[in-house]
## 1
Amino acid sequence: MNTSFKILFTLKFCLFFQLGYAQNPIIKDFFTADPAPIVYNDVVYLYTSHDTASTTSKNYEMKDWLVFSSTDMVNWEYQGAPVSPKTFSWATGDAYAAHCTERDGKFYFYVSTFHKEDENSKGGAAIGVAVSDSPTGPFVDAIGKALVVNEMTTDNKHGWDDIDPAVFIDDDGQAYIYWGNGSLKWAKLKDNMIEMDGPINYLNPENFIEGPWVYKRKDLYYLLYASKGEKAEQIDYAIATSPEGPWEHKGVIMESVPNSFTVHPGVVTYKGKDYFFYHNGVLPTGGSYRRSICIDYMYYNEDGTIQKVIQTEAGVEAVD
Ligand code: FUB
């Protein structure tokens, strides 16, 4: 073997070794952000935003939402782009963070996008709901109008404060929707999942920016969210003994991520392990508007507090 061949062989071997073992980011064929994983019938469905901005763009370009599925947390199968702002006749503009949840065999896909100027709104960010009989669609607008329009929330003056919906269904069947940028809003949902059941409530969790994610583990409720870090967003969390709070702030669980100003949490327990989903900007040509979803393990202490999530290139191992 001559010297240059040996060098080439070694480089190729190193690349193979790296690609073979570096799971993060988990999706390499698209730029994906705002992970929203659910487990249904022993399959993990991962709903994502989809960044399509050019390398020079200084803003988001997000035309649709994507779905991937996995049964081992390592191999992710692309299931299509079943929802876009075009699904909603009232919507225009970008496809910001979304969240899908199942109830009684139907899948409700809550989106943040932007509203046309019409009789229902003067524009700005709005939340809609699409519905399907399958986790991978096809989805149709479940209401025919937005669930939340900018005019319904009055605590913040900026037009994009009604983004990032996250839905949680408690053990007693009561569903809640949480959302917001600049402040956290929440409301009860009726059993039909497409109407609010009561007023909109406002909260200001410590350092809250956006991206709430709510779930229950044992007897505790967890609220994770993107918070103000020194230079970029990080993830804070709070706990409560009720989904209506009061929430006790417990601190930062994940530091800012490389090469992206935003970060966004998603959590599932699958086959006995706890997983933390987030995005960063580390794929080649990536950045704040060309992000990529990663997964790392999550660990709880005996008292229910969450240990700091360590961001790794290796990611997680396949589970049976
Ligand atoms: O992806 C667009 C916006 O960036 C999301 O709605 C926020 O959570 C942030 O990740």
## 2
Amino acid sequence: MAKPAFTTHTGMVDILPGEVEKWQYVETIIRKTAKLFHFHEIRTPIMEQTELIARGVGQLTDIVSKEMFAFDRGDDHYVLRPEGTAPVARAFTEHHLEQRGGTQKLFYMGPMFRAERPQKGRQRQFHQFGAEILGSAHPLADAEIIAFMIYVYKEIGLLNFTLKLNSVGDPESRKKYKQVLQDYLRPNLSKLSKISQQRFETNPMRILDSKEEEDQPFIADAPVITDYLNEDCAEHYQQVKCYLDDLNIHYEEDPRLVRGLDYYTKTAFELVSPDLGSQDALGAGGRYDLLVEEIGGRKTPAVGFAAGIERLLIACEALNINLGTTPDVDVYIVTYGDNAREWALKHVEVIRNAGFSCTLDYAARSMKSQMKDADREGARFAIIVGEDELKSDKFTFRDMAESAEASLNFDDILERLNDKLD
Ligand code: AMP
């Protein structure tokens, strides 16, 4: 009896040839953008200490309370990283990156893990790219972070999005606002959804984020945080808007944008796309002036964003944006007989060293099926080698597109390749 075949875990996705080329293209654009904005790449481990994420992201967030892939080994508590900001802030603190002087501008990309219910645009292993500016409290940094994020989408040709903007204030502004919000909601507390009732004491601002039907009428008329910002936060918000105007970056103010993560202060933003369905956020971010201190570092103002690569690809597909296909191969060597295969093995190397991609048949198949294979692989040229060719030292060089053939020695073939493929 056949053995049972394995599959991936729910919400974990293979990225196969044909698809992976799109990823490579997007990754190239991200790297190019980072270079243009002068951000340096940082790579942190995929596993962090559970406590870092709990403290950094916040005990009451969905991520920490129910979505962590965490396990213990001996006395160590491991978690598969659910996001990139807390790890970057940890690395910044651990390696004293502030000692390099100036503002640290970092970017990353890679897999993140959250035990969510999978659906379109929501996986358990997904990929984010993101950028962080650590060490600047200035609203210019907020504007640059938003500009970086948007630059990537524009480079890709994905222009159908809305930037939502808000300020979530600082602890002082929030304290005042929380009270106002609780006072407003209290008379109707019993009519709110269960989850919102739970959040009422601990994190009432998250109620504004609720998707529950019964909460909507109360959310619509709720007081907004931007009316309760202290002078510093209000001024900062005003400046960010002013800089975005200078950059011609269009935004919509959304006073109900609170974001799920606890560490945000002042600026919060989200990039949403109408081409994504219910999970409509391409990316999001904000200022997090309290995080570095919260995880044991020195007080360090910072701002950053994270964006999902899967969602970027979904939006591109919906808009028919072509991101690249499986690359063709320059040369396919078709062989007949053992001597020909030996010749081919030596000469693929010469062809590759000359800078052309080259492959050959590994299964001693018939010439006919090798020619078919060359076609399927998109070979531009085929070199056909059999006993006669080896004897005469002249090989059939076939232009696959034009179905034209010539009998040439190997040096002439290299010359032709140089002429035609450069
Ligand atoms: P967050 O870290 O929750 O602010 O998410 C930032 C971005 O990461 C989102 O806007 C999505 O594009 C992406 N993202 C977050 N969670 C998932 C997930 N479970 N699956 C796919 N993409 C995700």
